[in-house]
Amino acid sequence: MIDLIIASVLTMLTAATPLVFAATGELICEKSGVLNLGVEGMMLVGAVFGFAVASFTGSALIGLLSALLAGMLAALIFAVLTLIFLSNQVATGLALTIFGTGLSALVGFDYVGKTIDRLGQIYIPVLSDLPLLGKLLFGNDLLVYLGFVMLLLTDRFLKKTRWGMILQAVGDSDVSAHALGYPVVLIRFGAVLYGGMMAGLAGGYLSLVYTPLWAEQMTAGRGWIALALVVFASWQPWRVLVGAILFGGITIVQLNAQAFGLGIPASFLNMLPYLATIVVLVLISKDATRIRLNAPACLGKPFRAAR
Question: pTM for this structure?
């Protein structure tokens, strides 16, 4: 029984990790006032390029770095279109998802079904051998811990640093921030690229660690769940972790129900995470005041500097 609990917790954490990465990046992006709905597409681009490079070089670490770069380049396309040419952010984000889906299918055609050696779990002498706690706290891969670190750094950046305050000021009132002399477009460029980097890392985690293999549309809607997590978290970093673990727990329920042969149709179990997303968003939408108070005031609005 204890072994089952440990295995379930570890699986829950690994299922939550790509959501933590993607949602943290999108949170920073939205805090700057930019709504990027292309998270799913950026994750797919990161996943396929990370896997392709790892297959070519034989190094999962180099593949992860490539996934980061691929996600940033995809985000750069979005940033140029929305921040320089002032295209509609919603439409451009949706187009980015469609573009990422098609590009990943094209690039990954020759890699379907192939596998690579995943990044191994870390092992800390003595600590990893501790009964119960050793496996729970020190039995994960490095990226699970990196997810916690990135959340901590993001929270500290937003609450304790000058540039974090400036980022939020840009998201709440871009005109006022511009009047004070802050480079609004440049700040938003940085936030969008950071969001792309984190989405690419999330995709790379799926194809290089979580699976590890490449399959078309392997993100399976996780990018959309990450977007919902940002709203669920009320744009607060540590609440992202709670939401990610919640959805990771739903994944465990899905897997265990299939393993125990409860007779529930597999198609119904597969839709549980997305059903939970809809339920959570419906419940949150009832508190419109809370959303207005926490959401960046300029979210999704183009910035036009006075000439």
Answer: 0.90
